[in-house]
Design a protein that fits this description.
Blueprint lengths: L2 E5 L3 H12 L5 E5 L3 H18 L4 E5 L10 E4 L11 H14 L5 E3 L5 H9 L8 E3 L1 H16 L7 E2 L2 E4 L3 E4 L5 E2 L2 E2 L6 H9 L9 H17 L4 E9 L2 E10 L2 E5 L6 H26 L1
């Protein structure tokens, strides 16, 4: 059976390993971290919960990144030692090593601070854009659905909406196509309440480890099973640019980037967010080169 490789046994990485294992859709989860002792402890804990939760997925721990070779999907999470998410120059170096170890598997970046890695891995490491995506925006979308559900006195499960752009301050919500109970959200909420929900986005970013893990595990599952489900993810748009867009996923990663349905004002905000992100990445690249 297929296996998933998770790089990083920190709070988010451990939670992803548990959620993927508990859904029992893959044969094995490999939890990879330089601190193999911590990774092994978390792997053992997850395995021991299997009989209670009714899953039989094998979870193993290792410190060797070569163990990711042959994975159906690779997840880049966070350090076990408390250094946070794999990001920045160290994250890019890790992706460089991964690209030499495994050149086919889609790479899911689970962290909220890994947008730049998506663009730099595409532009500097020449990893195919279809293999690169970040799942954190899906967690943000879930959090916003929960808040919107509270506003209409319902569960967030009954809310449908799409987040695009560059969170947190340049995130754009497609409120025009958002729904509650299958009906337009605007028929349930006044415009000033919808505007207030948008204003709360910076306060709910970054999502916590459990929300990030839930998002990453569902994205990984969609890749492994080829479900072609739609998700909002960090994606490379070419030319060193990356942003949040809705995508359709399959076994090879990103199958299609879907153009969101936005009002003219929302589209202008999205275009501005992408333009700003492009400029920011260019400035960072020049700074790195100097």
């Amino acid at each position: 059976m297929s296996f998933i490789a998770i790089i990083g046994a920190g709070p988010t990485g451990g939670a992803i390993a548990h959620k993927v294992a508990a859904r029992d859709r893959v044969g094995e989860v490999r939890l990879i971290d330089d601190d193999e002792r911590i990774a092994a402890g978390k792997a053992l804990d997850i395995v021991q919960s299997g009989p209670v939760e009714g899953f039989s997925t094998r979870v193993i721990a290792t410190s060797g990144i070569v163990s990711a070779a042959g994975a159906a999907a690779i997840v880049l999470a966070d350090h076990a030692g408390g250094q946070g998410e794999h990001a920045g120059e160290a994250g890019l170096a890790l992706l460089r090593k991964l690209s030499k170890v495994e050149g086919r598997a889609p790479i899911v970046l689970a962290g909220a601070s890994q947008l730049d890695l998506v663009s730099r891995a595409e532009s500097e490491l020449h990893i195919s854009p279809s293999r690169l995506l970040g799942s954190a925006p899906f967690a943000l979308e879930s959090a916003l659905r929960a808040l919107t559900g509270l506003a209409v006195d319902a569960s967030g499960v009954q809310i449908s909406l799409t987040v695009v752009g560059v969170p947190p301050h340049a995130a754009v919500v497609g409120w025009e196509e958002a729904t509650a109970f299958g009906q337009p959200l605007s028929s349930h909420l006044a415009a000033h309440i919808i505007a207030a929900l948008s204003a709360r986005i910076p306060g709910i970013w970054p999502p916590g480890p459990y929300a990030l893990a839930s998002a990453a595990s569902r994205v990984v599952e969609a890749i492994v099973n080829g479900s072609r489900r739609r998700f909002s993810c960090f994606v490379a748009l070419g030319g060193g640019t990356a942003a949040t867009m809705p995508v359709e996923l399959g076994e090879d990663g990103v199958l299609h980037i879907i153009e969101p349905t936005l009002t003219r004002q929302e589209q202008t905000r999205l275009d501005s967010a992408i333009s700003y992100q492009t400029s920011a990445i260019a400035r960072q690249l020049r700074k790195t080169e100097s």
